[in-house]
Amino acid sequence: MATSIVVENATKYFTLRYHRTFKEVAVAKAKGRPTSETFKAVDDVSFTVEQGESIGIMGLNGSGKSTLLKMINGVMKPDEGSILTRGRIAGLIATGAGFHNQLTGRENLYLNAAILGMTEAEIKRKLDDIVEFAELGHTLDGPVGHYSSGQKARLGFAIAIHVDSDIFLADEVLAVGDKPFRVKCMKKMRQIRKSGRTLFYVSHSPDSVIKMCNRVLVLEKGRLGFDGDPTEAVHYLRYDEGDDLDDEIANDI
Amino acid sequence: MSAVVPDESGLPPLRPPASENGLIGVVRRRYLLKLLVTREISARYQGTFLGLIWSYINPLTQFCIYYFVVGFIFNLHAEIPNFAIHLFAGLTVVHFFTETFGAGTRSIVRNRALVVKMAMPREMFPVATMLVSLYHVVPQLVILTIASLLSGWTPEPVDFVALLLGLLICGTLGLAGALFFSAANVFFRDFGNIVSVFNNFVRWGVPMMYSYEMVDDRFGRFAQYYLYNPLADAVLLFQRAFWVGTVDPGHKSVAAMPDHLLLNGAIIVGVSLLILCVAQFVFSRLENKIPERL
Q: How many domains does chain B have?
């Protein structure tokens, strides 16, 4: 087994700016109020992933999951520490990859596939498969701005899943899909797992994480709180506690 | 860097994700660049009935306005023969620069949907803008060529070299400016406005509304400093390519053209490339903070 992802002491700072204009900054300074605040979105996180592992990432909203994924994806660079990956990376960051609202679904498909590193020949070869998987019908030729969030997620997932990647990142992809599409995605992700590609899966659903992943990382305010067995991770997060009523209410959504 | 383990042979190396960045990464991913450029061109004329004809109408109308106002009201036709070509040659190359610089500066902010979610060389957007501007130069060159041929121009190889040098200067400098300011524009949108103001000055800092002869005449020995403005040289190169051939060689406005225009042009291209390297360096430094600030 070869290593697929090496994250060493990765830290990412975010700066919150309360005031942007000259006037606002001047007033805030005069009154002695802070004009900006820096915090660590990802704080000294280290782990190593072997090729073929399927990793679940859990944590509350704002715990740094998407930021970590963006750094692995290469959208952001860590301010401290290092991240190394092997091979091609594809996937979705926060439901519905970067789409241009004025362009049609088909134009976005070409653009997105090219950004993910597909060649022209590769896109032409896989176009039918992608279109079929997305199941958008004639809306594919309408502007993406008119799509529902579910439709955007469908298209984004369909493109990303057809890239011959060594690492697949899936960030809450299933949150907005309807049930038939969720089933389809889960099947496809199982295929990915079986084919020996590395899978990175962000989800709030303990059941699907336990089913999909053989290892879970739990992030807490940017720090790596837990790294290990999925069932224990769910226990660590206390997602399995709370009375049954809570679960029922959460599942009702 | 981690040590290489024996069983990893045949696999791609461990490296930082999205390491193929920078202008080199842009050149490597030509297909994506092509998609971005065609998208930009088709988007600009989307929903218009005349479509690409607009890329001819815009420069042509601007040309007519300048021609009548500056030419007849300020009466420059008398001093500069074929003033229309003199002006339009300058307009073409200056417009190429201002478009590349102005639209390129806004390009990163405008494409924020892609920038914050997808890993790709972000230099892609300024470069695509430069190519879109270059695409719009073509109709103007067509107009210019027809007008010059009608005015008695016989194309020579040296004209072509001058044309190419002029385009290279404006393309490289425009891109360098766009790289630097597009990153800065993410942090403070003020930079987009600064660039607009700057572009207003550019039109008057080059010899197209007035001739170089006037500069030479009024500035005297300081005229050489005027030529330190690379855009002025680009304009002169374009006029060398089209306008000079249409005027009687003995005319005083042609005789006043600076010497060694082509050599100076080549030197400026070299310097522009150096500036582009500096802009790339600054861009890479600022780039880290772009996704979170958009």
A: 1
Q: Cα(A2)–Cα(B197) distance, rounded to whole angstroms?
A: 55
Which residue among A1, A86, A112 places its CB closest to the CB of B12? A86
Give the tens place of pLDDT for each residue, B184-219.
Answer: 999 888 898 999 899 888 988 899 888 888 888 888
- The reply to whether residue A97 touches residue B117, judged by beta carbons under 8 angstroms, is yes
**What is the distance in angstroms between the Cα of B6 and the nearest Cα belonging to chain A?**
9
Whole-model pTM? 0.87
- Residue by residue, DSSP assigns chain B as -PPPPGGGTTSPPEE-TT-S-HHHHHHHTHHHHHHHHHHHHHHHTTT-SSGGGHHHHHHHHHHHHHIIIIIIITT-TTTSTTHHHHHHHHHHHHHHHHHHHHHHHHHHHHTHHHHTTS-S-TTHHHHHHHHHHHHHHHHHHHHHHHHHHHTT----HHHHHHHHHHHHHHHHHHHHHHHHHHHHHHH-THHHHHHHHHHHHHHHSSTTSS-HHHHHHHHGGGHHHHTTSHHHHHHHHHHHHTTGGGS-TT-HHHHTSPSSHHHHHHHHHHHHHHHHHHHHHHHHHHHTTHHHH-
Rounded to a whole number of angstroms, the distance from the CA of B277 to the nearest CA of chain A is 22
Domain that residue B237 falls in: 19-293
Q: For chain A, which residues lie within 8 Å of any Cβ of chain B, measuring from their own Cβ?
A: 1-3, 6, 14-15, 70-77, 79, 82-89, 93-94, 97-103, 107, 110-112, 114-116, 119-120, 166
Closest chain B residue by Cα to residue A67: B292
For A3-87+166-252, the fitting CATH number among 3.40.50.300, 3.40.50.80, 3.40.120.10, 1.10.40.50 is: 3.40.50.300
Q: Cβ contact (<8 Å) for B31 and A75?
A: no
- Chain B environment of A102 (Cβ under 8 Å): 43, 46
Residues on chain A touching B8 (C-beta within 8 angstroms): 2-3
CB contacts of A115 in chain B (<8 Å) are 32, 114, 118-120
Average pLDDT on B230-241 reads 94
User: Which pLDDT value is given to residue A245?
Assistant: 64
Write down the ipTM of this complex.
0.84
